[in-house]
Specification:
It is built from four helices and no strands. By secondary structure, the chain is mainly alpha-helical. The protein has one domain.
Length: 106
Amino acid sequence: MRGFWLAAVAMMSVGAAQAGVVDSLSCRAGLARADELIHGVRLREPRIKRDDMALACRLLRDNQRDLSEAGKLMEPCLTGHEKGENLGQIWASVGDIRDVIARNCR
């Protein structure tokens, strides 16, 4: 999953002139915010440990919220392969997190 975060951040930091990214002020702002949210997820990820499930569940919920928001911000700004691949990874990760929360958190 770490590789996905690096790829997503690298994709968002590429200039909007690249194919697959809509070049508009709102998309530049949305992708910048999505980058911040994904960065926050990456920073929280190492703190998720099975020996403190209360903390792990809180961090997982934060990650689910932030990834969902990032995906919603990215969706109107990506096209083609970038949209399918990157958003597919985000929505799959959100689903994985939701499943882990359902199995392990109250």
